[in-house]
Known about the structure:
4-stranded antiparallel beta sheet; 41% helix
Amino acid sequence: MSYCDTCVVRNRAICQALDDSEIQVLSTIGRRKVLSAGDPLIWEGDDSLLVANVIDGMLKLTNSTEDGREQIVGVVYPADFIGRPFGKTTNHSVTALTDARVCVFARSDFDRFAGDHPKLEHKLLQRTLEELDRTRSWMLLLARKSAEEKVATFLLEMSTRLRDATCSGPHDEPLDEFDLPFSRQQIGDILGVTIETVSRQMTRLKREGILDLPNRRSVKILDRDALEAMAG
Amino acid sequence: MSYCDTCVVRNRAICQALDDSEIQVLSTIGRRKVLSAGDPLIWEGDDSLLVANVIDGMLKLTNSTEDGREQIVGVVYPADFIGRPFGKTTNHSVTALTDARVCVFARSDFDRFAGDHPKLEHKLLQRTLEELDRTRSWMLLLARKSAEEKVATFLLEMSTRLRDATCSGPHDEPLDEFDLPFSRQQIGDILGVTIETVSRQMTRLKREGILDLPNRRSVKILDRDALEAMAG
DNA sequence: CGCCGATTTGATCGTGGTCAACAATAGTGG
DNA sequence: CCACTATTGTTGACCACGATCAAATCGGCG
């Protein structure tokens, strides 16, 4: 018996590639770690010492310039993998956005284990390819879209992301009412615009009757077609 | 004997993970394809039908909006891998920037072969992780850097990229004189700015004595320190 | 209720986009 | 080899979007 047996992401994280006896071995080299919102897990530029699976909570991956400008280059959710296996250094920081629990491994241990388990590497490869696809699509948004298009795209993306993460309810129809898991500042850091610009675009969408914003964090999409047309 | 035996990227492409007998098998499912500058190889949104290794030449990966704005999300060089294994669709286009030769595989054949050769998948995983790192770093540039910083960063990056690609000459000291393999339009598409902005920044750098621009394609870095300071 | 951080709103400014003209270079055929 | 054209790059004038700075307002929590 290992704590993996009761792990809520056992069948969604890369661990799904492993059978029970393999999991047993993996569990001996990993350990749980609890993070509070805002806690850093990995620093940009540091030696790559650990990798992890997210059990619950959300974390951000960021790159920064020396003068303090920050860009969120990725957001990870439960069952996602964090860290840079097979490499000496990590080039982005990882910080908890919410309280979170992760399952961490020393990178050297994980590298060795992965080398012996092709099915695990295969799963990791698939995930990395998917992440690369998502990241590349995001580049188009960052480089070419207007603030209006950025915010519209972001809201639509959240609507599907949150639907997929919802345990109950239909997964085939869009989710029109949800709570944003991000502050305005974080949304700005994701979209590459300032907090004021995010705010202005949101209120404009509300004024035009496309959205309702019952309170700071919640969003209700009233006219999805219009929003999609805006997303560019 | 297979044509792989004389392949110039045999020991640099992911094929390096395979021994001679394995290469023999791989060569039976691949074929050479010659592209002229401008030729498309894969279309954004299409079914993912093929993957390939670059033998020589350069190709661009692009994402576009419906109204025609284009962003280069990656550039691939000889020995790099192209395409989206283990996935149904590709979400970016691949187009030759120069005349090029590639070694293509039907995706289904490649997937099957890779599944049987963990060492190949391991190599591919390493490459994909490196590419993801590079891509994420580029996001910071696209989202947060000024035109000046973008152009300075680009020139410095080209200087190291081209040094690494140079067969002869020292690989430890920077390359200060080189020919850009891109048009102004392509540089703009990489940096997420217009062709006019690229041009203006370049002439400004020349006016300030940081660069010399003997002709359209060539660049000579006169003051690397200043350029690095500008890159942010 | 009063405080503090988050968000909204307003006013102003600067960077880089757009449109247009011009220059330089490469390519083509007499 | 030189006109002629097409393509690529440069420069200028102007403007819009989004950044910046500043103030007002909201909302959660002691």
